[in-house]
Amino acid sequence: xxxxxxxxxxxxxxxxxxxxxxxxxxxxxxxxxxxxxxxxxxxxxxxxxxxxxxxxxxxxxxxxxxxxxxxxxxxxxxxxxxxxxxxxxxxxxxxxxxxxxxxxxxxxxxxxxxxxxxxxxxxxxxxxxxxxxxxxxxxxxxxxxxxxxxxxxxxxxxxxxxxxxxxxxxxxxxxxxxxxxxxxxxxxxxxxxxxxxxxxxxxxxxxxxxxxxxxxxxxxxxxxxxxxxxxxxxxxxxxxxxxxxxxxxxxxxxxxxxxxxxxxxxxxxxxxxxxxxxxxxxxxxxxxxxxxxxxxxxxxxxxxxxxxxxxxxxxxxxxxxxxxxxxxxxxxxxxxxxxxxxxxxxxxxxxxxxxxxxxxxxxxxxxxxxxxxxxxxxxxxxxxxxxxxxxxxxxxxxxxxxxxxxxxxxxxxxxxxxxxxxxxxxxxxxxxxxxxxxxxxxxxxxxxxxxxxxxxxxxxxxxxxxxxxxxxxxxxxxxxxxxxxxxxxxxxxxxxxxxxxxxxxxxxxxxxxxxxxxxxxxxxxxxxxxxxxxxxxxxxxxxxxxxxxxxxxxxxxxxxxxxxxxxxxxxxxxxxxxxxxxxxxxxxxxxxxxxxxxxxxxxxxxxxxxxxxxxxxxxxxxxxxxxxxxxxxxxxxxxxxxxxxxxxxxxxxxxxxxxxxxxxxxxxxxxxxxxxxxx
Length: 679
Known about the structure:
Blueprint: H1 3-14, H2 20-32, H3 34-41, H4 47-56, H5 64-75, H6 82-96, E1 99-106, H7 112-126, E2 130-137, E3 145-149, E4 152-155, H8 158-170, H9 177-190, E5 197-208, E6 211-215, E7 224-228, E8 233-239, E9 244-248, E10 260-267, E11 269-271, E12 280-281, E13 299-301, H10 324-329, E14 339-342, H11 348-357, E15 364-371, H12 375-387, E16 394-399, H13 405-424, E17 428-434, H14 436-449, H15 463-471, E18 485-493, H16 502-510, E19 513-517, H17 519-523, E20 536-537, H18 546-551, H19 555-568, H20 577-593, H21 603-614, H22 626-640, H23 642-651, H24 656-673
Parallel strand pairs: 1-2, 12-16, 14-18, 14-19, 15-16, 15-17, 17-18
Antiparallel strand pairs: 1-3, 3-4, 4-5, 5-6, 5-10, 6-9, 7-8, 7-10, 8-9, 11-13, 19-20
């Protein structure tokens, strides 16, 4: 029912002047006259002729105000809405008399005595003075009846009781062996109460594109989980005066006008706990990996207020990615939010997956949230994690491109809820959102379908809040609040390298830094293709390992100098010795930073390589031999000086004896290899 019809109904009811029953009966009589009502609706009859029909109608004799009201409907072309206006006016009259409309659905037609008994019982239970009760027959109920009054449904049917019993049996715990399962099932059946099922309900008014407009849920709240008769869950995302907008968290098949929608009284939530580790689930936490059900009784709401300022600890503990270029120049700390941004096919997901692989043995729980990705891409990520043994401490939450927009919308919030559970237990969590560009598109789709006003690039006005409230949930807690942390690696896909677009600038301003991947570097063979000049970590420096921080001190400056000199050499071939040395040094640094996929590097190796490179000890190694030489160097260090490498790994410090060991091994490696190097 639209607000316009409500206004017309209120105006019609206001004409009653103490005799609402007579007025409404007059309008009903007009509608019952098929000849008159047909002419008033016909497009072939002019407005002047219709006004003459109203003037001649005997039912309107002496009813000037009512005739004027009907003529107003004619002038505004709203005569076709008269039946709906009359129905709403009757509801207003019934409410004014302390009554209510009631619908009873029975398995078979009730007799007259049963009807009267039901009317008296409902009036007594609801405290009503009057009742307009209508009856429907539905043999599928098997027995009993379903009563709907004032937005509340009382289900006394056999079908409803069987459904509640079946739900209880589905939730029954397995128990120890077959006997335990049988005993639990017996307890569930014996403890079943076959009473009423009372719930606040509404009905679908219109549905399409994963959105249902529902009337009757007068007390629904934003973000509340609702259940449709078809079994599909939904979430309230729009509240208006006459209806609520519900996004369907599943298939809309079978949902049609009149479908009953029930309130649950709780926000949308997902299962959490250790049982999710090693599993692939959808946005609602249901398993999709074919490994059976997930047994956990704990749940958390997908929307949760971010931790306050007083409960947060400064970021000062490193989270090693195992990628030399990142750990050296764009370090990440536990509890940080570091954006990975770049064009498509530049290695964004690869960086995130390698970071997950590097957490093996680091007591970090990893969550990979795939938003709008191809199912084949998610399968590849799972296979990679499985092959490297990373699924033991990881989980994947997938809302693929084939899933409805509502599931893609809630996916990152569901992943954050799962991560917050572990963070509240004092554990460290790494969560990857791949990617938030598609998340913003899904939210834009929902907002446009909900008829919200579009803004820049058709995104709604609150698209910044969409991501800020998500990423603010990542933090490091103080010991008083558990001492856990959640590190977020959101991914944003740019178009033609445009980092100044709407969504990229939003997320850049929310996060604590960004890793920018460049297409030109990627195709030039520099992988990972990190643009050092545009990449930054605003808080990770305080969490960087001392050994890496010390040895990588001049790395960023040396690379910046190399880029600058490289531009000038395009215009001149006459280079002095110092310039040529700087160029050669820069090329060797870039060669050192190249790293294959699926091969994260421990801190000890990073410290050795960075010391050798930034100290100029690799400058006399031919460029084509740098990769092989550095691999031989770290392997020799691990073989001959395992204690030194262990010390660097555990303490994070590069001591004097460690430096001497690196120098001696490096000089010996140079001596052995110099005979085989090609000039």
